[in-house]
Amino acid sequence: MVNNTIDRRLSIAPMMDHTDRHFRYFMRLLSKHAVLYTEMITTGALIHGDRQRFLSFNDVEHPLAIQLGGSNPEDLAECAKISENEGYDEVNLNIGCPSDRVQNGQFGACLMSNKNLVADCVDKIQSIISIPVTIKTRIGIDDLDSYDFLYDFINTTRAAGCNTFIIHARKAILSGLSPKENREIPPLNYERVHKIKRDFPDLNITINGGFTELSEIKLQLNHVDGVMVGRTAYQNPFMLAEADNILFENKNPAPLRASILKSYRDYVDKQLLQGERIKNLSRHIIGLYQGQPGARQYRQLLSRATPKDKNNIQFLDDVIEAISYSNTEL
Ligand SMILES: Cc1cc2nc3c(=O)[nH]c(=O)nc-3n(C[C@H](O)[C@H](O)[C@H](O)COP(=O)(O)O)c2cc1C
Q1: What is the pLDDT of residue 106?
Q2: pLDDT of the residue at 15
Q3: In which residue ranges of the chain is pLDDT below 50?
Q4: Which one, of 170, 165, 160, lies nearest residue 140 by Cα?
Q5: pLDDT score for 260
Q6: How many angstroms separate the CA atoms of 69 and 233, rounded?
Q7: CATH of segment(s) 10-246
Q8: Is 79 a catalytic residue?
Q9: Which CATH number is 257-326's, of 1.20.120.1460, 1.10.1060.10, 2.40.170.20, 3.40.470.10?
Q10: What pLDDT score was predicted for residue 3?
Q11: Which residues line ligand 1 (CB under 6 A)?
């Protein structure tokens, strides 16, 4: 059965050190509909670490998925239950990260070669939560890169109860490439993901990897159920401003950069009062004026937040004033 409760036409990828709750709030100012993902959180961190720091979110972030990293079915199930109780809408398993650290922990992309263990994890999680458990994976790893291998992985984990897959359309090479290289060097193969959708029409399939334009994303929706965007959402977030109009049925005018910035400024003001540091908030909006007049100065000003500016909204107000001189959108 396809889970139809979450509209997955657009989602923003989990990105370590990037998709924290502040960035997700910022994303929500650009699209009311995109599904948002946390950074990967390991089961160890969630069970033994500062839980509230990892789990807290703002209500506007819904629909919101937590991404878990781990391979012990009991631990994953415990973390999934904690996440459901906290109010997350989906639990996503990371079966795509190629980093050494993750491989040493026996999870991430290397788990593609252990489909039965992944199926056990899905089964265990699904038995104790009622929100969906989904898998984010690659099209293959190392020499295990045939279509049949991917088909088999999907088929086995589907039988355990996963009906939503996010597939990064390139394989991971587990030794010799850094995570960054693993996002650039193995070639993209969108057709392979399209074929998975054709062969499993009942599954909800999201494609990921290399999307930079809404027009391409819209075309992909002829082949799959959803598109996940990672780096472009961070580096050129305004690309998403028309997403709700182009991909969804929104008829209101798309937001302007200045209004997004003003709304984010009000959010920052509240966060500062709660003791958050401005640097942790300002870093996420550095790409907002990408390619626009004044972008360079905007970036430079934003990256100058010093400890002295720590709790001072005036810092951001000065940046807003500077960009409003050089950039007048109509
Ligand atoms: C800085 C950074 C951190 C990432 N961290 C994660 C992560 O925590 N979990 C995950 O599944 N993928 C992670 N990814 C991979 C992205 O989710 C996505 O699959 C990849 O960037 C390809 O999509 P894109 O071409 O739209 O960027 C990360 C990517 C980047 C750039």
Answers
A1: 85
A2: 98
A3: 1-3, 330
A4: 170
A5: 97
A6: 22
A7: 3.20.20.70
A8: no
A9: 1.20.120.1460
A10: 45
A11: 13-16, 18, 39-40, 67, 94, 96-97, 136, 168, 183, 208-211, 229-232
